[in-house]
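Table S2 (continued). Query chain:
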Amino acid sequence: VQLQASGGGLVQAGGSLRLSCTASGRPVTSYGTGWFRQAPGKEREFVGRIDRNGGRTYYADSVRGRFTISRDNAKNTVYLQMNSLKPEDTAVYYCAGRETTSSTFEYWGQGTLVTVSS
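Corresponding output:
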């Protein structure tokens, strides 16, 4: 599975961005997809995920209610809609894939930079 994240950019606080994670090699419904981010000088952290079966979504407390993950099966793409952005959301965002909910994320795409100005 090859994943590619895109859609990052510069946005003012309170604004919105939508990131895309486009997959090649397998249908996006055949594995779970997670979103992660890494801010400068910090460790990578979990943002949210959409599971393979049923498409259930889960979010980190820091983004719940502001971020939404969705999936377009026809486009083989997973989205991360980010609303009410805050400067602390500034980071490089990555998407990743895993086979099951009990396995680790083993497929990683290149990140996309999101910068939120105050």
